[in-house]
Amino acid sequence: MKVLVTGGLGFIGSHTVVELQNEGYEVVIIDNCSNSSEEVLDGITKITGKTPIFEKIDLRDKPKVIDFFERHQDVKGVIHFAASKAVGESVQIPLTYYENNIGTLVYLLQELQKKDDASFIFSSSCTVYGQADELPITESAPVKPAESPYGNTKQIGEEIIRDTCKVVPQLKAIALRYFNPIGAHESTEIGELPLGVPQNLVPFITQTAIGLREQLSVFGADYPTQDGTCVRDYIHVVDLAKAHVIALGRLMENKNKENYEVFNIGTGTGSSVLEVINSFEKVSGEKLNYKMAERREGDVTAAYADTNLANNELGWKATSSLDKAMSTAWKWEKKVRS
Ligand code: WQD
Q1: Residues 6 or more apart whose Cβ sits within 8 Å of residue 71
Q2: Does residue 195 surpass a pLDDT of 90?
Q3: Dist. CA 101 → ligand 1 center (Å)
Q4: How far is CA 236 from CA 61, 212, 224, in A?
Q5: Among 66, 74, 191, 268, who pairs with 332 as Cys (CB 3.0-4.6 Å)?
Q6: Both ends of the chain: CA-CA distance in Å?
Q7: Residue 256 burial (CB count, 10 A)
Q8: Helices (H) and strands (E) in the chain — how many of each?
């Protein structure tokens, strides 16, 4: 079975390609390498022994997208990761985000609706909930007005898919609302490669510990949480990757209950910034250089998943602890900088 993974050279995409290959799928990757590199293919091959087909295509180039699907008529499933994802950057260049994240989604769906049977997995985000009124967050929690153009593209993306599935019965789709993906494959052959200064907490921690960054700033110590720092649901990227394979199988085997379904993908456990720092220091034996700083604009106080739907419907559950995930992140950082 041939599956297209857009953004398959990226952090979550590459880990998902590995799990798809482990499951026996033939994988074709489309990536424009704007936030990844072709060398990731070597890492994937070292892990699975199989090199995915790779085509360097920018999904904003509609004729190229049409041509791809004409040449790969046997693609029945698509997992769509390719998108711009920096929250802060999206505020500065909204049109770039709307063109890249929405335009490309429309082009992909226009090709899939031509097929007599198509399965589509969409990379969404817990960002759509904003600061949820109740914790843990269930899939029926209201979607809140987005705090950034990036978050808005995820909300709009879900609506586009939902509206399309309503009138294209042969198109089945699942949106996976990720919480906070962290860590790396235990082989250290693939991992997170943030371009420039990392926006996310865990790569900033490991880059500080390795000496690339001077000091970690903890964005806010006065939140109404147990230790004053923000709480998030940190999920190991391999657990997240496995959820994609299971979700795709659900659609390809026609086990879905609706044409469009949504699942939260998290561990169900919230961890504060200080707890993540303590976990890192414990598993690495390093003393992290950090200071308390001002809150970051747009951050919510706390977000962690109610994972019952994914556990019960998908039969999927995260297995990795925070310590294990932090340990793989540190092993990866040391490998990349060695
Ligand atoms: C986590 C916590 C920060 C950096 C974002 C996107 C989300 C998804 C994951 C794409 C927060 C604190 C961070 C630092 C810090 N991205 N922090 N110092 O903001 O929960 O989610 O990334 O899909 O859509 O919104 O993740 O890792 O940026 O921050 O104190 O140098 O760490 O304030 O509380 P976030 P994050």
Answers
A1: none
A2: no
A3: 20
A4: 33, 23, 26
A5: 191
A6: 38
A7: 17
A8: 12, 13
Distance CA 72, CA 64 (A): 12
Distance 199 CA to ligand 1 centre (A): 7
pTM, two decimals, is 0.97
- Environment class of 2 (CB within 10 Å of its CB; exposed 0-12, middle 13-18, buried 19+): middle
Cα distances (Å, whole numbers) of residue 277 to 1, 239, 285, 327: 42, 21, 12, 12
Looking at the DSSP bridge assignments, the partners of residue 302 are: 231
The Cβ of residue 199 has, within 10 Å, a number of other Cβ atoms equal to: 14
Q: Please answer whether residues 233 and 304 qualify as being in contact, where contact means their C-beta atoms are separated by less than 8 angstroms.
A: yes
Which residues pair with residue 4 across a beta bridge? 28, 78
Structure tokens at 138: 């269930």
Residue 57 pLDDT > 90: yes
Name the token pair of 181: 């993906």
- 226: part of which helix (H) or strand (E)? none
Judging by DSSP bridges, how do beta strands 75-80 and 53-55 pair with one another? unpaired
pLDDT reading at 231 higher than 90:
yes
Catalytic site residue 150?
Answer: yes
Token digits of residue 335: 């490998």
Give the integer Cα–Cα distance in Å for 156 and 3: 24
Q: Cα-atom radius of gyration of the chain, to the nearest Å?
A: 19
